[in-house]
Amino acid sequence: MNNYARRAMGAMLAIQRYPWEQGVCAQALYEAGEMELFIAMAHDAVLRQQPDGRLAVINQNIAVTDPAANGEPVLRAYELTGEPLYRAAAEKMLAYLKEKAPRTKEGVLYHNEVSFAEGYSPDQLWVDSCYMAPPFLAAMGEFDDALLQMEGLFGYLQDGETGLLYHNYDVSGARFVRKLLWATGNGWALMGLARLRALAEAAGRNDVEERARAMGKALLKALLPFQRKDGLYHDILDDEGSFVDGSSAMMAAAFIFRGVFEGWLDENCREYAEKSYQTMLGKFDAIGLLHDVCGCPHFVSSGTSAEAQAGFLMMDAWRARLNGEKV
């Protein structure tokens, strides 16, 4: 791991985390080869598992799909340690998604148990869920459900004109909550598709692998025309008045570097990712935080975030593999 990645990792580990943040940070450590650290994060996700099965929950227990972002790290912790506690926790998380979590009539998992916008129902689908639940379902062997989730979310959220994904949709009200082409949301979807594709290939589920690969390549093709000359994107992709965001750029770059390394994405895509990588090297501050990214806690302004730190680690790790460097 190079010095930039170590700085990103150090700051990431110091950031307060909600369930999705704990999950993406643990996954980033796993992909970066930091096995002891990712197991420690998976362990804490288990300590904060709710009785209904949701992992890494703090404060109110309202998230449906976010806790599942911790599922694969917990499963991998079991595979590496043989500790039954982790396997049981992964099974409990799966049981929640399969038996208790609220879904649409088509079977698509809702994102939260409550609404975040006045006048809307809790029956909302968020683009973030493309990353949170489908890869874990696939890791647990539930490939048909994993693909159902991904295709279902695309069915509700995809813009027919651009091919990109809107942020969230209220199913009961049959209207969008935030009908905006949120850059980071499309980044979440790309990373979820990359993981789903790889898991399907490893399990010999060629049908799921082919579909996830096709969806990922199409979404990337829709995204790249919005890339700025510096390799970043505007927070709202088709709104040049919105702030410049690096989180989405790092997520897309991780997708590209991974796809080229694994051999299913064209080598020509690499230049788009490299441009993002080089620009983000200049966004570190003295303590290792990355700036000019979609900022927590509300993600409607520029700031810093756990997923930005994790995005850099993932981007750097797949770039290193592609360059033949040790991870």
Keywords:
three-stranded antiparallel sheet; 7 strands; mainly alpha; single chain; 327 residues; Glycosyltransferase
Task: Describe this entry's structure for a reader.
This protein has 327 residues and is mainly alpha-helical. It has one domain (3-317): Glycosyltransferase, CATH 1.50.10. Helix content is 53%, strand content 6%. The strands form 3 sheets. Strands 1-2-3 form a 3-stranded antiparallel sheet, covered by helices on one side. The protein has a two-stranded antiparallel sheet with strand order 4-5. It starts with a helix and ends in a 5-residue tail after the last helix.
The structural class is mainly alpha
Q: Shape from CA axes?
A: globular
CATH topology: Glycosyltransferase
Number of helices: 13
Overall domain count? 1
How would you summarize the topology of this molecule?
Blueprint: H1 3-13, H2 19-31, H3 35-47, H4 71-81, H5 84-100, E1 124-126, H6 129-132, H7 134-139, H8 143-157, E2 168-170, E3 175-178, H9 183-202, H10 206-223, E4 233-234, E5 244-245, H11 247-262, H12 270-280, E6 293-294, E7 302-303, H13 306-322
Antiparallel strand pairs: 1-2, 2-3, 4-5, 6-7
